[in-house]
Design brief:
Order of helices and strands: EEEHHHEEHHEEEHEHEH
Largest sheet: 5 strands, antiparallel
Number of domains: 2
Radius of gyration: 21 Å
Distance between the termini: 71 Å
Number of strands: 10
Structural class: alpha+beta
Helix content: 40-55%
Length: 289
Amino acid sequence: MKTIYSTIILRYMHDVVTGEFANIGVVLYSPERRLLEARFATSYERLNAIFLKIDHLHYRALMRYMANRFEEIGGEIRDGLRAPPVTALNEIVRQVLPPDDSSLQWSQQGGGFTEQPEKALDELYKRFVERYIAGAEQVSRSDEEIAKPFKAKLGRTAAKLTEKKITTKDYQYDFRFAWKNDIWHFYEPVSFDLVDPGSIREKANKWLGRGVALHDAEEQFKIHFLLGEPRQEDTKKAFENAIHLLDKIPGQPELIRESKMELFAEHVAQEIGSHDAAEMVLREKPNQS
């Protein structure tokens, strides 16, 4: 059965005088399905190629913020905590990013009818954003999509995860999902569900280089990679190559395949819960003279 949906495009406008812009995200809202989802381009290469001198660290941080805020609001709508009418997408997006004279601008609201809102979002993103990213990864599923089932399985425990920046003399990286007991634990979603086998190997190679660059950090940490596996048969060999490359990262990272991800999330939730309980006992334990 078809349902109505509304959609808005996020644009990066480098110069408001010339009006030149690039589409960098799509937001879709389906009130009947209680569905609000957004997808943003985390890669800045296309913007840099068009406009030059893009602050990539600020851009990536901003896109993560946008994705997190829409995920929060989407959860509230899904759980019935808010139920805006179909015409309210304009109001929703302006709660996250109010209209101003900055480089990020919302398009006019559009919409239509569909039987599968999630699929409609995929198609809109590919049409308005992904098809124009020359030379970039052709993504079937993004890193954010790989993280969703992991965070969903964590439930309330997901609120315990935080962002953490690891810095060395020559490099730094912001991990989005981090938790600390004796050392820092990073839960890093990496989608290898890509169209091009070469892109799969290149993405793994980038992580190998990143892992080597971060190995000299003073703070101890362990990376747990949440791996999005390719669904195309002709990319399976490239995925195994990627696994071998990730295995070479210093510090013995843990590689969690999708078939094991929910079980791993349960383990993480239990570990965090046990740690919090032990800390509470220590805080409540009376001082002994």
